[in-house]
Fold this sequence. Notes:
Chain A is α/β, with parallel strands linked by helices. In chain A, 36% of the residues lie in helices and 18% in strands. A seven-stranded mixed β-sheet of chain A has the order 6-5-4-7-8-10-9. A four-stranded mixed β-sheet of chain A has the order 1-2-3-15. A four-stranded mixed β-sheet of chain A has the order 11-12-14-13, with helices on one face. Chain B is an all-alpha fold and 83 residues long. Helices cover 53% and strands 0% of the residues of chain B. Chain B starts with a helix and ends in a 5-residue tail after the last helix. The chains are: A alpha/beta (526), B mainly alpha (83). At the A-B interface, helix 3 of A face helix 2 of B.
Amino acid sequence: xxxxxxxxxxxxxxxxxxxxxxxxxxxxxxxxxxxxxxxxxxxxxxxxxxxxxxxxxxxxxxxxxxxxxxxxxxxxxxxxxxxxxxxxxxxxxxxxxxxxxxxxxxxxxxxxxxxxxxxxxxxxxxxxxxxxxxxxxxxxxxxxxxxxxxxxxxxxxxxxxxxxxxxxxxxxxxxxxxxxxxxxxxxxxxxxxxxxxxxxxxxxxxxxxxxxxxxxxxxxxxxxxxxxxxxxxxxxxxxxxxxxxxxxxxxxxxxxxxxxxxxxxxxxxxxxxxxxxxxxxxxxxxxxxxxxxxxxxxxxxxxxxxxxxxxxxxxxxxxxxxxxxxxxxxxxxxxxxxxxxxxxxxxxxxxxxxxxxxxxxxxxxxxxxxxxxxxxxxxxxxxxxxxxxxxxxxxxxxxxxxxxxxxxxxxxxxxxxxxxxxxxxxxxxxxxxxxxxxxxxxxxxxxxxxxxxxxxxxxxxxxxxxxxxxxxxxxxxxxxxxxxxxxxxxxxxxxxxxxxxxxxxxxxxxxxxxxxxxxxxxxxxx
Amino acid sequence: xxxxxxxxxxxxxxxxxxxxxxxxxxxxxxxxxxxxxxxxxxxxxxxxxxxxxxxxxxxxxxxxxxxxxxxxxxxxxxxxxxx
Lengths: 526, 83
C-alpha cells in the first residue's frame, strides 16, 4: 500500500509557485511528465496535470520500500513504537493502576479534552459495547493484538476455547497476569505473548476464528506497519472467521475532532484566527495513526480471502471522543454471504426525522435510509463551518452562538430504540464515508443479527485518495519532496513550477482512466 | 552545569520543539497543566533514565514526579543518585 500525505498538514508540500484550484476544472494530463516521475525509485505511481491557469500539479503515490529504507522511516518507526511501549508501561507503574478493580484497569485512558482520566461510566460503556459487538462474531479461538490490561480478554476468554493475547508493554502484561491469577479457570485457555503487533512468529495459518485489534492501530507508526499486521491477521484467520478492528480514530473526522478539542481547551479570549492556527498545529503534530474507513474497504480488493468489510459507528449513549469520532471495522474472511435485499431511500430535503422514518417503515419488510445526519457530531460540524468563514472574534462569542442550537440529525442510538419499538432489526453503517459524519441505516424483519450483509451505499472515489494520515513523518516527507523537486527541475527547461501532493491512490473511473475530479476534490481541502 | 540547570535545559528544549517558547519558573507545572503531553513525559523519563540511571519500575511513576523542574530535581535527589 502506498505512502501518502495527510490532507491536513501542508508544510511538507514543496511550493514552487503553483497552487491547486479550489473549483474543479478539467485539467490536462501531462503523460510525459507523469511517466518521467514514475521512473524515480521513490515513486510507485504518478499523475501530473496542467491546470487552466497554467500551474502544474503532480499527484504522487510514493513507493513504501524507498520511504522505509532510503529515507529512514523504518528506523524512526522503531523509535516511535518503543516510545509508545514506554508510555503504556508508565501507566501501569502508577499506584492507581495497582489498585484497580478486577477486569477494570483503565489507567492511562485519558480524555483528549480534559487530559484527565476518562469517567469510569464512559469506560464501562466503552468496554460493554465492544464486548457485545465482538460476542456477536461468535469468537472461539481468539488472537488479540494489543490486549492491554485485559479489559476485553477477561470478559471474552471465559466463553472461548483458546485465547492468545499479545502486548508489547511488559508492565501491562504483569498487571494482566496478576488479574489472571485471580481467575485460575482461564489459565488453561489463555496464552500471553510479550511482543510487538507485527510479530506473528509461530502463529499458524488459519489457526484462529477471530482476530481482535481494538484501540491499538492508532499507536502503529505508519500505514505500512498496519499493512504488515493486517497481512498476517488475514493469514491466521480461517475461512468463516472475522477480524475486528475496533475503536479506530476516523480520518474523515480528524479535523472536526481537533477543532472540538482545541475549542474546548481555548481560553475565552482566544480569537478565531488563533484557534485555526492551533487546530492546524494539532493536526500537524499528530503522533497517532488516524485511518479512513476506506483503508479497510480497500482491503477487499487486495485480499481474495476478505469477503466483506463492514464499517460501524461506535455504539453508546455516552458523549465522548470515542462515540463521536471513532469507528469499528469488521472483516469477514472467506465465503460470499448473500446480501439482504434492502432498497435505500434518499434523505428528504430537510434530512431524516424519526417520524418520517417511522412512516416509511409501515408495512415494509425492509427499508434503508441513506445519509442520516449524525446528531452526535452536529455541534462539531457547526464549529468547523463557523471556523471556515467566521469573522475575527473571541472564542467566547463563538461558543455562545453555537451552543443553543437544537439538533437536526438523529443520534444513532435513537435508531436502535426505534427498531425495538417497531419490531425491526437495525444495522447502521459508515461505509459511505460521508464527510460530515452522516451514516446509513437498514431496518429489516428477521432474526437478531448484528453482522448482517447489507448492500450499503458505497464511498465515492475521492474517499480512497487518502487512507490515513502520516504521523511523525514531516521530515521524511520534506526530504522526499526535495528529491522529487530537484529531479523535476533538472528535467524541466523553464517549467520548474510544480506542486506535489502525496496520495495513497490514484482512483480510477469505470473506464479505467484516472478519476481526476476525485483527486482534485480530495486535495482541495488542503 | 548543575543538576537543576540540566533539567531546566532539557525541559526548555522539549517545549521549544513544540513551538512553546513562553518563559517558565522552576516550580511551574508543565505536564499536568498540559503544556507537555504524555509523549513528552516519556521523553523526560528516558532522559532521567539515561542521565541519572533512575529505574521507574522500582520507584513507581506518577506525573506529579516529573511535573516541574523542582519536582524532577527532588525526584533525582530522593532517588539518591549522583552522576
